[in-house]
Amino acid sequence: MLRIYGRRPLTRLEAALYAGFTAVLIAIFLERVLAYMVFAERMAMEATVNQVMSGANRRLAYDLLRGARHDSEAWKRRNPFELAGIAHANFAGELDTAQVQGIGGGAWAFDRERGELIYRPRLRIGLQTSDPDGVLRFRGSLASGALGYTLVPATSYQWD
Length: 160
Hints:
The protein is of the alpha+beta class and about 160 residues long. The protein has four helices and seven strands; from the N terminus they run αααβαββββββ.
């Protein structure tokens, strides 16, 4: 006679244990996914800053090779995306300081009044910034007499 084992219905205790174990695994998975999403956003932000600096330095080198003179103070106050010749999908454009608060998460903007490039993070987990609006602000800096356009943080921030 053939006996089939394991075909009995689950007791309430067994079902509760399986459901609890599954819930714990899902919670751990979602916490890790959220951590990777924050990490990916931070890396995308840093990559964009590096692309803008590279593009601006490329343009600066081109202008120097052509013999064109540039005003370093004017370069510091110009839109870095325009200087770099980059069209970013999440760039909201040049805005006034009052309009900057209206940009959505994950978007870039240029504050014309302050002369700062602004990034509003989509996920702020682990982000500590001295800006009251919770945005990251960068200001253009140009080394005198040499190649070296950089974007420096205008407000301190730490993103763990």
